[in-house]
Amino acid sequence: MSYMRLLALLIVLLWSSSSYATTFITLCYEDKNIPPFFLGSGFEVPSHRPGATIEILRGLESKVQNVRFNFVRKPWRRCLHDIQKNKVDAVVASYRSERASFLNFPINAQGDVDESLAISMLGTCLVGQQGLAQDVANNNYPISLAVPRGYAVLHALHQDLYRVIQTDSQDDAYQLVLKGLVDGALGLCQVYNEQVSGFPYSDALEPVFPPIDISYGYLALSKAFLLQSPDVAQTLWQELGVMPLHEYYLDYVNNPVNHKIPRY
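^ that's the sequence the OP posted. Answer follows.
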């Protein structure tokens, strides 16, 4: 074999190998039990029923050729810190303008975040005992609410309408409601366009519709990952846009282990 033919063969082989190379994506998510998104606590990723969001991403692997997710669990602020430093490639997060400096979200032709490519669209309602809905209808404000520290939905609460008591956990918040120490808490009440009772103690507590907040979660990628693999990023977002995502979340809501509201 001549030198030129050997060189050509090597080039073809190298091109073929690179075209089928697997892209590994390290995704960081919170180390707390937050159904229906993530189940289990600590650093371990459950092999069975890990949460709707993780199952969606595992399903995404089968749709996007040569992509594999590596999941790591850390405190949420650490996940944000690590992706800002390009130590991990992805998180699942809601859009905020201050996050755009270190996270990439799917963008439409108008330059806006493309909600049709979100990985979740969930509604949060006021949740309380009988009578809370009547208080809201009669504008009997302010209403006292127990809400875990750090939850993104806090930004949707008008300070003149709600007196917020921050708690250490979601269960602590609901215990205050059940004991009559506060008027209400917040709970998952809508999955896409379907009303649900996806919150703890739904046999004793009722949601107040409509939701006070509709949150969109996105597969958000690091700046370094988008720079290195722009085609993979676009393919992942486009595939999420055609997957039956609501079915994953409804499965976990209708077959609960526990329920919490989104923290991202």
